[in-house]
Amino acid sequence: MKAARIIEPEKPLVISDVDTPEPKDSEVLVKVKAVGVCHSDLHLWEGGYDTGDGFMKVTDRGVKFPVIPGHEIVGTITEVGGSVQGFSVGDNVLVYPWIGCGNCPACRVGNDNLCDAPRSLGVFQNGGYAEYVLVPHFKFLAKVSGIDLDAAASLACSGLTAYTAIKKANANSQHSIVIFGAGGLGLMGVQIARAITSANIICVDIDDAKLQTAKELGADSVVNSKDADATQKIISLCGGKGADSVIDFVNAPPTVKMGLAVLRKRGNLILVGLFGGSIDLSLVTVPLKAITIQGAYTGSYNDMLELLGLAKRGVINPIISKRYSLSEANAALEDLKARKILGRAVINP
C-alpha cells in the first residue's frame, strides 16, 4: 500500500510502498477514505512541543520513527480477524484512535485517552496517512451512516476534544462560555456549545473572517483579541462580572493571560490547545477567586459515540474546507502550519 511516513522530524514525509497489514484475531483492516490533518500531526512532524522552559521531544514520550501519522480516520472495512464480532467487510466506520494499554486506572474505567502508556494510532503506532490502517481491536470502531465520511473524520479528535471541553465548561455554569480560537477546534466548539448548552457564547480570535464564521455557526458575540479594549469587551459581554468558563483552544501565553483576566470569581479555565509556552501566574488569585484550571485532552470512546449521534442528527456540521491526495501530505501540513486552512482539512488516500 501507499503510505506517507515521517522518517525523522522536520524532514518531508516520504511517500512510498509499504506492506499492507493483515488482520488476525480481533484486528480489523480499514481502507482509509479520509484522514484529518490535525495540529497534533504537526507536533509529531516537528518532533515535539514547547514546554515553556525547553523542548519536549515526542521520542521522550515513546514515539518511534519512522511512523505513519494520522489519527482522525474514517473508512471501509476490507478484512477482519477471526474473533471480530458485530462488524463486517463493507461497513463504513469511524476509528477511535486513542488506544490505551487496557490495564491502567484510566483504561479500566473507559478513559483510554488518558492512559498511562498510550498506544494511539498515528502517534505511537501507524495511522491513517495511508491507503489502509490496521485497527488493533474492533471495540475501537463505530459504524457511520447518514453523515458525510470526510466530515466524520474530525469527530475522532478535533470534534471529540471540543465536545469534552464544552462538557467540562457546561458542568461549571451555563451562563457564559468564552471560546479562544476560531480554528477547526474552536468552530466545532461553538457548534457543540450551541447544541448542548444554553450559555451566552463569546468567541475570540485575531482573524475577523474566522470570527464571522463563528458568528454564523452560533456564537452570540465575537471579539478580536487585537482590539485594545478586548479584555473589557469580553467582561462586559459576560454581564460585567466576567466569564463563568473560558475554553482556550490555542493555549498560548497571550490567550491564557487574557483568559485569566476575563475569568470571574469561581470561574473555570479549560486549557486545550498545544501551542506551548509558559506564563507567570499570580498564585494568590487562584484561591482568592476560587478558580479552577484544568486540561481537556480528546475524550472517551463513549464521548465519541455521543458526538457521532449529534452529527447524525445534523445538530453539528464539521467544516471541511480543503481536501488533499496522499501525495500532497506535505503540502497539507505546510498549509496547516501557515494558517491557510479554515475549519478542517482531510487527506483522501
UniProtKB/TrEMBL annotation:
<keyword id="KW-0862">Zinc</keyword>
<dbReference type="InterPro" id="IPR050129">
    <property type="entry name" value="Zn_alcohol_dh"/>
</dbReference>
<dbReference type="InterPro" id="IPR013149">
    <property type="entry name" value="ADH-like_C"/>
</dbReference>
<dbReference type="InterPro" id="IPR011032">
    <property type="entry name" value="GroES-like_sf"/>
</dbReference>
<dbReference type="GO" id="GO:0030554">
    <property type="term" value="F:adenyl nucleotide binding"/>
</dbReference>
<comment type="similarity">
    <text>Belongs to the zinc-containing alcohol dehydrogenase family.</text>
</comment>
<keyword id="KW-0479">Metal-binding</keyword>
<dbReference type="GO" id="GO:0051262">
    <property type="term" value="P:protein tetramerization"/>
</dbReference>
<dbReference type="Pfam" id="PF08240">
    <property type="entry name" value="ADH_N"/>
</dbReference>
<dbReference type="GO" id="GO:0008270">
    <property type="term" value="F:zinc ion binding"/>
</dbReference>
<feature type="domain" description="Enoyl reductase (ER)">
    <location>
        <begin position="11"/>
        <end position="347"/>
    </location>
</feature>
<dbReference type="InterPro" id="IPR020843">
    <property type="entry name" value="ER"/>
</dbReference>
<dbReference type="InterPro" id="IPR036291">
    <property type="entry name" value="NAD(P)-bd_dom_sf"/>
</dbReference>
<dbReference type="GO" id="GO:0043168">
    <property type="term" value="F:anion binding"/>
</dbReference>
<keyword id="KW-0560">Oxidoreductase</keyword>
<dbReference type="Pfam" id="PF00107">
    <property type="entry name" value="ADH_zinc_N"/>
</dbReference>
<dbReference type="InterPro" id="IPR013154">
    <property type="entry name" value="ADH-like_N"/>
</dbReference>
<dbReference type="InterPro" id="IPR002328">
    <property type="entry name" value="ADH_Zn_CS"/>
</dbReference>
<dbReference type="GO" id="GO:0004022">
    <property type="term" value="F:alcohol dehydrogenase (NAD+) activity"/>
</dbReference>
<protein>
    <submittedName>
        <fullName>NAD-dependent alcohol dehydrogenase</fullName>
        <ecNumber>1.1.1.1</ecNumber>
    </submittedName>
</protein>
